[in-house]
Amino acid sequence: MVDTYKHKGLRKQLVNTIRDKGIIDEDVMEAIGKIPRHLFLNSSFLEFAYQDKPFPIGSGQTISQPYTVAFQTELLEVSPGEKVLEIGTGSGYQACVLEELGAKVFTIERQKKLYLKSKKFLAKLGYKAKLFYGDGYKGLPAFAPFDKILITAGAPDLPDDLAAQLKTGGFIVVPLGRSEIQVMARFIKDADGKMRKENHGTFRFVPLLKELAND
Ligand code: SAH
């Protein structure tokens, strides 16, 4: 688990790349500048860790492209102390970005192998995010309501259970779509409980799936 000056230098370049692509929230960039992304990738692929690209993390899943992580995080407008629910833990990288912003992070993964691997790894890095093995469509009613909810897989629709677990004034950021390409939506919960929708461009995510995977 080494983090060298070379890695730190590469992270600075990565931050500059995502800034050039239009990310403006300096707190988000500071978080990305801190997290040793190379440790989240299989060790034989270290040279790819600080390129602005998605990467396979096993079990047919990917760690999102850093720009996409930054874009979703920026839309979430996290303030310190907020309770944030993430759907799709994957490598745990996005959960660490949220934690670096001061959020209390709850995150759900449907693939048992990934869940177990990321739970162990995040604890080893010293992160306190709470990881759950389960179906993200259902959220975490026992820990609701949440200030913010972030879905990191492409969803056909906004899941009703998640909308119900959001505080008034809270946001849900979700790539919405039934094909390979999704529209990044941000829903804001109004005082009357209605979800107001904004669209923020197109992205490509792995799909949000229904059944649990037990391998
Ligand atoms: N946020 C991750 C990348 C997410 S990739 C990271 O930072 O690395 C999307 C993840 O969503 C995959 O790991 C996939 O297994 C998971 N997923 C898909 N459907 C799900 C569901 N219904 N509930 C929870 N996780 C789900």
Describe this structure in words.
With 215 residues, the protein is an alpha/beta fold. The protein has a domain at 54-203: Vaccinia Virus protein VP39 (Rossmann fold, 3-Layer(aba) Sandwich). The protein has helices at residues 5-20, 26-34, 66-76, 93-100, 112-125, 160-164; strands spanning 55-58, 61-63, 83-87, 104-109, 130-133, 146-151, 166-176, 182-189, 195-203. The strands form two sheets. Strands 5-4-3-6-7-8-9 form a seven-stranded mixed sheet. The radius of gyration is 16 Å and the shape is globular. The model has no long low-confidence stretch (mean pLDDT 94). It binds S-adenosyl-L-homocysteine. S-adenosyl-L-homocysteine binds at residues 61-64, 87-88, 90-91, 93-94, 108-111, 114, 135-137, 152-153, 206, 208-209.
Structural class: alpha/beta
- Report the uncertain regions: none
Ligands bound, unique: S-adenosyl-L-homocysteine
Q: State the distance separating the first and last CA atoms.
A: 26 Å
CATH homology superfamily name of the domain at 54-203: Vaccinia Virus protein VP39
CATH topology name of the domain at 54-203, in short, is Rossmann fold
CATH architecture of the domain at 54-203: 3-Layer(aba) Sandwich
Biggest sheet: strands, sense, closure? 7 strands, mixed
Mean pLDDT: 94
Radius of gyration (Å): 16 Å
- Give the assembly state of these chains: single chain
Helix content: 25-40%
How many beta strands in the DSSP annotation?
9
Strand percentage lies at 25-35%
Shape: globular
Q: What string, H for helix and E for strand, traces the elements in order?
A: HHEEHEHEHEEHEEE
Strand order of the largest sheet: 5-4-3-6-7-8-9
- Look at the structure and give the CATH class of the domain at 54-203: Alpha Beta
